[in-house]
């Protein structure tokens, strides 16, 4: 389970393949629901990459 502010490594991303291999921060305060099709919002990836939506198996928490 992820929490808002968690730093994560993006392992895969259908939303924007340029985000793969980069880190970002989870934006969601609550677990994802039907509005995002069960995907987490990850922000603060890069200046040229907007926030992306990813499934839980596409990200990994980093310290």
What does this structure look like?
Helix content is 0%, strand content 29%. A hairpin with an 8-residue loop joins strand 3 (40-43) and strand 4. The protein has 63 residues and is mainly beta. The chain is globular and about 25 Å long. The protein has strands at residues 7-10, 23-26, 40-43, 52-54, 59-61. The model has no long low-confidence stretch (mean pLDDT 96). A 5-stranded antiparallel sheet has the order 4-3-2-1-5, with no helix packed on it. The chain contains no helices and 5 strands.
Form type: globular
Tell me roughly what share of residues is in helical segments: under 10%
* Total count of strands: 5
Treating each run of at least 4 consecutive H or I residues as one helix, how many helices?
0
Radius of gyration: 10 Å
Percentage of residues in strands:
25-35%
- Show unreliable segments: none
Instruction: Quote the average pLDDT.
Output: 96
Multimerization state: single chain
* Euclidean distance between termini CA atoms: 15 Å
Summarize the main sheet: 5 strands, antiparallel
Structural class: mainly beta
The ordered string of helix (H) and strand (E) elements is EEEEE
Strand order of the largest sheet: 4-3-2-1-5
